Amino acid sequence: MPKFLHTADWQIGRTFSTWEPEAAHQLTQARFAAVQRIAQLASEHAVDAVLVAGDVFDAQTVPDKTIRRLFQALEGFGGLWIMISGNHDAALAQSVWTRARKLECVPPNVHLLLTPEVACFDGFAVLPAPLTQRHCFDDVTAWMDSASTPAGLLRIGLAHGSVQGLLHEGIDSPNPIHPQRAALAHLDWLALGDWHGMQLLDAHTAYSGTPEADRLHGNDPGHALLVEIAAPGATPQVQVLDVGQYRWQRLQAHLQLESDWDALLSTLSALDAHDVVQLRVQGSLSWAQQQRLQAALDRAEAQACALQVERSGLRLLPSDEELAALHVDGYVGEVLTQLRQESAAHTDDVLLQDALALLTQTLWQQQEGA
């Protein structure tokens, strides 16, 4: 039974400039590790070919070293690698692909299908729809409907774009693909790239998603698809294989009750080196609670791969005991008391909350430094 490993959207060379440098470096390197893992899986499952549905590279301008490293990462699988270009690495007259060929770093078992022509292999034919520019407004898979292939060979489509009407609202974009293309072209499998989440669209069509998560969309990335097809016209058997290292999460916490605190502290303590997290914290807290929160965040930051915290909705509201412990009198004491009273009465007044937080924090720091 012919077997294929379907993958896409490696985005090799992607940088993560919105994250701190150490984490950004780890995330960039993880994309090479994902390719090595795909090669390992291809060998373990003895597939007939790895189908790579575009966006192998994140940009045309990746360094030569990155191009060489990518093809070196394929060494763990000596079988067929079949690749097309996507919107990030479109097969322009001068592209990352022409550079790869000039560098003479493309192994002989790697087939770059950069023109829409049938390519025949042992037991199957591939009908590729590579992108030759970043945005196409015609369906580049339309030619598959009338393309002939030798009798007895599986018909495998390989394309990169947006299946119209089947993805989330607003996803329909340039590089459209007809939702019934597999049926219209009598394809046994249509391996798609562009959508970074894994999604099975019908019995013969799927997005594998990116093998390593790279954004906070929560659309089930981090996989490759093992596809087995008994014979032309048979229903493919599809198995989802885990590939990715990192869990990207967007978390929110509104600190109001003690249970809110317990939940947040439990979440933070559970983070490890595989977590990439954006956390938004809201609510009000005393000075002691702020110190407690900061300590928990410091520990979590050391544990996780990356942690970004949004605190604009967090307000410092010292307790009466904490204010009394400052032993502030005179004019400053009067201002502090008035701010405390006004802040308690107008909890939605951001300026009041910020003024109280700034004054209290300054006084505490002065006291601790005395």
Could you characterize the architecture of this molecule?
It is a single chain. By secondary structure, the protein is an alpha/beta fold. 31% of the residues lie in helices and 25% in strands. The protein has helices spanning 21-44, 64-72, 96-102, 181-184, 258-270, 287-303, 320-325, 330-345, 350-369; strands at 3-7, 49-53, 80-84, 110-112, 119-121, 124-129, 154-160, 162-163, 176-177, 189-193, 199-202, 205-207, 223-228, 237-242, 247-255, 275-285, 306-316. The strands form four sheets. A six-stranded mixed beta sheet has the order 4-3-2-1-13-14, covered by helices on one side. It has a six-stranded mixed beta sheet with strand order 5-6-7-10-12-11, with no helix packed on it. Strand 13 and strand 14 (237-242) form a beta hairpin.
- The largest beta-sheet arranges its strands as 4-3-2-1-13-14
Number of helical segments with 4 or more residues: 9
Query: Which H/E pattern describes the elements?
Result: EHEHEHEEEEEEHEEEEEEHEHEHHH
What number of domains?
2
Mean pLDDT rating: 90
Outline the biggest β-sheet: 6 strands, mixed
Please compute the radius of gyration using only Cα atoms: 27 Å
The CATH architecture of the largest domain: 4-Layer Sandwich
CATH H-level name of the largest domain... which superfamily?
Answer: Metallo-dependent phosphatases
Assign a percent range to the helix content.
Answer: 25-40%
Query: Which structural class fits the helix and strand makeup?
Result: alpha/beta
CATH fold node name of the largest domain: Purple Acid Phosphatase, chain A, domain 2
Top-tier CATH class of the largest domain: Alpha Beta
